[in-house]
Amino acid sequence: MVRNKILDSKHENSITKKKKCNFALIKRHKVVYPFMPFIYCSIYTHTHIPMNRLHLSILRGFEIAKSRLSSKQFLFISAIIVGLLVGWAVVFLKSFVHLIFITTTSWDIGQRKYFYVFLPTLGILLTILVIKKVLNGNLQKGISHIIYAIVKKSSTIPRQQTYSQILTSSLTVGFGGSVGLEAPSVITGAALGANYADLNGLGYRDKTLLLACGVAASIGAAFNAPIAGVLFTFEVFLIDISISAFTSIIIASVAGALSSKIILKEGILLSFELTEPFNYHNVPYYFILGILAGMVSVYYARMFKKVESTISTLSLSVYQKALLGGCLLGILILFFPPLFGEGYQSIKNLSLLKPESLLNHSFLQPYQSNDILVLLFVGVLIFIKPIASGLTLGSGGNGGNFAPSLFVGAYLGYFFAALLNI
């Protein structure tokens, strides 16, 4: 009897120790993979292994891999993992925004014009509510703080950034905020890469490299352009260029691009094909367009900064600023519908030589056959877009400036080409 009690006691102690060990493993990795369900949901579907056991098995697998592989091999595998995680995050962000956009714009055309006035305000208010209630008022906007983290904080990025940008930017852009999703995607990718490195005990150099892998994967996934993701990472974040670093970054970028290419529909991504061959006789016009684009970019930067600072520094509450900025943005969208959201669909329409479609749902729709009016409409949008973006961010919305700059550049290019062909 006594012997049985002793055996039972030992068995209970072993179970307790095992539970403590498992709990420690989960605690250590509890935010390593914020998108862990993407990894094991398919495995669970086929194997029906309980989620807690599956989670522990995956985490132990990473521990074993780290102990048995060389540091370079582990970095290459980590680059693939980070690239896939970031790619899935971008897919989720783009799909969620597309879903909100389709839902909010599926009203009857006759009534839809006037919803434009209220939808951006609703999106900004929801964004502020999420920041205050869910994120406790903490949200870092823009990619400048990533550069600061690399230089001053040993590439440490708060774990909250792995999901906060997705939550807030999707609400802002999905409901019509005139900004982009690239900056939030970049921040999310950098946060996933840095926190993956942190919770796997990697040093500053490797953590910075995986941070860069996340950045490259986000751009590769957003535009289905892995080389652009690599070049963007090296140019903006000035990551040390070495063969191993370059290899890891391009692996992550390709993994992210493949994720979005396989999962996302082509209509959600910004993609189009050139139908005309290159003509060297047009090179002088490219130089002129480049000079014009430089001048417009100066206007864009100054106007955006002025509008954003004017709205954000008003002595009003955050909700009053959201109402003011959102209503002003809604009025602009009421007259210029292409300002709604990222605006990538309107860029595709321009590339397909369908500029008259920009006037759909506007007060000028009856005049779509007037080529001069359509061209003036395109030209005016070049100068109004930075105002719309400044209103969105200044009133409390979240998003990036990359998509608006592409919007302005595309409209300028079309305007210049159409002007030459008149």
Description:
By secondary structure, the chain is mainly alpha-helical. It folds into three domains: 24-68, no CATH class; 73-263, Clc chloride channel (Orthogonal Bundle), CATH 1.10.3080; 280-420, no CATH class. Helices cover 72% and strands 0% of the residues. It contains 17 helices and no strands. It has helices at residues 2-28, 36-47, 51-68, 71-104, 109-115, 119-133, 144-152, 161-174, 182-198, 204-223, 226-237, 243-263, 283-312, 318-335, 344-351, 371-394, 402-420. Helix 4 (71-104) runs parallel beside helix 12, helix 10 runs parallel beside helix 12 and helix 13 (283-312) crosses helix 16 (371-394). The longest helix has 34 residues, at 71-104. 41% of the residues are buried.
Fold-level CATH name of the largest domain: Clc chloride channel
Span from first to last CA? 102 Å
Helix content: over 70%
> For the CA atoms, what is the radius of gyration?
25 Å
Give the CATH superfamily of the largest domain. Clc chloride channel
CATH class division of the largest domain = Mainly Alpha
CATH level-two architecture of the largest domain: Orthogonal Bundle
The structural class is mainly alpha
Number of discrete domains: 3
Total beta strands? 0
Largest sheet: none
The shape, in one word, is globular
Model regions low in confidence, pLDDT < 50 over at least 5 residues: 1-8, 14-49
Overall pLDDT metric: 81
Q: Note the total helix count.
A: 17
Order of helices and strands: HHHHHHHHHHHHHHHHH
Strand content: under 5%
